[in-house]
Specification:
Helices cover 45% and strands 20% of the residues. By secondary structure, it is an alpha/beta fold. Helix 3 runs parallel beside helix 5 and helix 4 packs across helix 6.
Length: 187
């Protein structure tokens, strides 16, 4: 059985997560929720708590952002839907795994290597969903609709996240764009 990939994108507070959760809940199938956020400050801790409170109790939550294909291997026999929220936070966490990186002087070759490694992490995750016949719902932020960021780190992040989003959209069976709580089907 071939799995299905649904990508949901949009700006901050556009309703992406709510739409993704409604899709999963309305399917009335066992859901595994992959939470990629790390509570680095009070604001993020508050967001995590609100997300936890909004999820149905019967959903099983897995927290992490690395090697998610291994999580899929573990849960495949127990769930039919895997909801990942959020890909852009996952990318951020993967970028910051090495605290010694100087983002103002990092060489382009090293950036390219990081992007390739992140791309591999995402492709393994997508392939695992498909090979186990699971419906993957992936929430991600649209990062390319604003002005060009001033800082080099912000531009690096925007470029990598944008290209990863393009890759996921290409692989996805469905793509939705949310604006002010309204989902629009693009693919």
């Amino acid at each position: 059985m071939k799995g299905k990939i649904t990508m949901i994108t949009g700006g901050a507070r556009s309703g992406k997560s709510s739409f993704a959760e409604n899709l999963a809940q309305n399917a009335e199938k066992p859901v595994a929720y992959l939470a990629t956020a790390i509570p680095l400050d009070d604001g993020m801790e508050d967001r995590i708590q609100k997300h936890r409170a909004s999820r149905p109790r019967e959903w099983i939550t897995y927290e992490g952002y690395r090697d998610l294909h291994k999580v899929v291997e573990t849960i495949a026999g127990h769930h039919e839907i895997v909801l990942l929220d959020c890909m852009t936070i996952m990318i951020t966490n993967l970028l910051f795994e090495d605290p010694e990186v100087n983002w103002d002087t990092i060489a382009h070759e090293r950036i390219d290597g990081m992007e390739e490694w992140i791309r591999g992490q995402v492709m393994e995750f997508l392939a695992s969903l498909r090979s186990h016949g699971l419906w993957g719902i992936i929430v991600t932020n649209e990062v390319g609709m604003g002005i060009v960021p001033e800082s080099r780190l912000s531009r690096i992040f925007r470029d990598i996240a944008g290209r990863i989003n393009q890759m996921i959209a290409c692989e996805a069976d469905e793509v939705y764009f949310t604006v002010s709580g309204i989902p629009m089907k693009l693919k």
